[in-house]
Amino acid sequence: MIDGNKVLFSGMQATGTLTLGNYLGALKNWVTLSDEYQCFYSVVDLHSITVRQDPAELRKRARNLLTLYIAAGLDPEKNCIYYQSQVSGHAELSWILNCFTYMGELNRMTQYKDKAAKHADNINAGLFTYPVLMAADILLYQSDVVPVGKDQLQHLEITRDIAQRFNAIYGDVFTIPEPYIGKAGAKIMSLQDPSKKMSKSDENANASIYLMDDPDTIIRKFKRAVTDSEACVRYREEQPGICNLIDIYCACTGKTPEEVEKEFDGKGYGDFKLAVGEAVVDVLKPVQERFADLCKDKAYIDGIIKTNAEKANYYATKTLRKVQKKVGFPERIR
Ligand code: TRP
């Protein structure tokens, strides 16, 4: 609890370009959650270097992501928006938690197996202990809730296990976090293969709408979106392409699938795809405009970065000192 509010933690990696899926599935909901919780939204750059990064590129992407958090509507006065690498407590707690995590547990992580297969030439120890760093992120702020996608649930489970193990030995040190399963954040699928999630790492640029795509590109990508031969706008399992477009349309307009079916009754895919494209353009335009304005104001963003890193550091240090004391480290020399 901070000032009587429950604590929420989440983070994103600055790898790849954010997609409409990241926005409708996560960022947009973060904004709603910030009314209810004391939120920490981190740009998790320590996690990013588990795979090779170009330094200049990483720096640029991380700053863009942090700026985008604000452009998407997160108020940096209310939410703690910061770089993970600027709060050393993450790395310090991560080391301690490493000593309370079993190799066998980490071996079971499916994301590790996937990433190791994908980066066979660089299976580093960081990639293996990635979930421990994530546990440190969450536990450092005594987080009550963590909004995560399905792919991260296993990491939240291990976080809970590590916290419970530590608490069993040393007393109630960590809050045990719960996954946040809210009104299902829209799960947006690829426009070219609706059986796959829309991903920032898809090689086919037509499969994803990027947050910074201009209106013409957005409309063009929707026109090319894969559908099927039924030629009617119905929300049916055997039409996954159309279902995805309906989901996107609903997430952008607040309408229900039934309302959408009625609206497009008797109309073809062409009309519908255009409407979806326009709805997405309307949702992304204000975010893009705010982003462009914010990028012009370097001093303002620099100020946000500084004050929020200090705020994060204050809470992180509180937990870290408690943990260090519990495990038997000497007091810090001031
Ligand atoms: N691993 C998460 C992802 O790739 C990002 C992340 C890092 C995170 N630390 C976190 C998410 C803590 C939630 C809480 O999506």
Can you put this structure into words, describing what you see?
This protein has 334 residues and is mostly helical. Helices cover 54% and strands 6% of the residues. It is built from 13 helices and 5 strands. The chain is globular, with a radius of gyration of 21 Å. It binds tryptophan (TRP). The site of tryptophan (TRP) has 12 residues, from strand 1 and helix 7.
- The helix-strand sequence is EHEHHEHHHHEHEHHHHH
Question: What is the count of β-strands?
Answer: 5
Query: Helix segment count?
Result: 13
Strand content is 5-15%
Rounded to an integer in angstroms, the radius of gyration calculated over CA atoms is 21 Å
- Major sheet, described briefly? 3 strands, parallel
Average of the residue pLDDT scores? 94
Q: Are any ligands bound, and if so which?
A: tryptophan
Global morphology: globular
Query: Termini, distance in Å?
Result: 27 Å
Strand order across the largest sheet? 1-2-3
Query: Which segments are poorly predicted (pLDDT under 50) over 5 or more consecutive residues?
Result: none
**Secondary structure: helix percent:** 40-55%
